[in-house]
Amino acid sequence: MLFEVWAPNAEERVTLWLEGAEHPMERAQGRDGWWVTEAAADDGARYGFALDGGPVRPDPRSRRQPDGPDGTSAVVDQDAYAWRKDWPGRGLKGAVLYELHIGTYTPEGTLDAAAARLGELAELGITHVELMPLCSFPGVHGWGYDGVSPWSVHEPYGGPTALKRFVDSAHGHGLGVVLDVVHNHLGPSGNHLPAYGPYFTDTHHTPWGTAINLDAPGSDEVRACLIGSALAWLRDYRLDGLRLDAVHALVDNRALTFLEELAAAVDSLAGDLGRPLFLIAESDQCDPRTTTPRSQGGLGLHAQWNDDFHHALHTALTGESQGYYGDFARAPMAALAKTLTRGFFHDGTYSAFRGRTHGRPLDVANTPAHRFLGYAQTHDQIGNRALGDRLSATLSPGLLACAAALVLTGPYTPMLFMGEEWGAATPWQYFTDHTDPELAEAVRVGRRREFAAHGWPEEQVPDPQDPATRERSCLDRSEREREPHAGLLAWHRELIALRRALPDLTDPDLAAVKVAFDEQARWLAYRRGDLRVAVNLAKEPAAIALGGGGRVAAAWGEVSPPDRDGVLRLPPQSCAVLADS
To answer: Would you say the pTM of this structure is higher than 0.85?
Structure first.
């Protein structure tokens, strides 16, 4: 088989180390910085590269790291797995996503253990599972955002073959699979890419240090490596889409941006494979160009997370006003109404949190609503809190039901975070398993100092390196059979079934959404076609003048149809979906 590596840092020679034998490599003709050689190798064969007589390092494009990112790579025969399901693909329109972390979805923390639970998600009505990052990182347990081998599958989760089994099983249940990938940085430990070439640049700096090289000398090959990795996930593992972490942190001053190039490559692959593929961006820029088609001057990504909707919903539910929530907390019901109808809250408005104006207006008449993901909770919004507390830690079941109604009947593509459907009481905390003692201590101290600045006593902030922190974050499925969890689970099933049955709930026309609210009384109602959704977040009953009747299609609590004057009376912290016929 052909072994090749981009190693422009090598001055004189590159050697392939394969199963204990050395094989000199030659410079590839017409490919600057590339080295190649042919050698016989079977699936699982261990190999690595040595530059100029230096240590043997893993392949920058390794598909498998059996001993972690500092060990040698292993050959993966992508044709060895016999796929059971002929999958036609599943696009994003009409989807309901479910964000899932393999390491805490089950106590075992493996892909095979998670696959055994996929029937629960299909029965719930989920259409796509969104997996948090799977790239190899040091240690066993972590969030995955410290990955250092962008083509590989974390071995403690089961490695490449286990991912194929997971995807095959998901497709067998009718579930698409989306993978969270990180292109804006690599982890602080186990990163061997700089030894090979200019994968990073001092030209720009990010919150994680020097930036991935997307626009400096040598960036053509770096971009090709990242795009090749993205296409490999979609092609070799038959994934349906990718979630792109923090694209606002990708520093790229080239005329053709990395994101445009990636989107074009994914669209081309979708054509070649004959099935839909999509990219979902995480971006805090409130810029419509992220999802605007390339033919219209945009980046051409297919969707993005809508954090503005989350922030407005969170402040309306909790009353919290710290940090970036402050911009939304001044009038949370108005903020929620704006995000339900205009997409972004910050669309050229002043942000006190940033100390400047932020965002750009969205053309709601020409932007399909399904291009935005709406959610009440995510791994970030839970795990980056000091205690990793979910909304269920402080909100009543009624308010959790209202949040579900706003997410699952709202105009955007809904997404749930694992366990949210039953109001899981388990926290989801920040945990790591750094093998470098100095790095482990730095993370531990840094985490405590971060929250000490906000008034948290150090002893109350969980130690990320303590195995108990991860264990506390694992879901407890026994909750599903007890109240109020069982009732919330049934409510989520009912709402998702309504979304699937009633076309008005997947209507992409954002301009058609009409909202009314009362800031002081804390109620909000909106119309979607022949449906009306009303939520009362207050501790007192609400009388909402809907201007018409209709039957109650679904409700949390005892709710009667509107009276003859078209007034709907909602009990405290309750909600209802009404249909005209």
So the answer is: yes
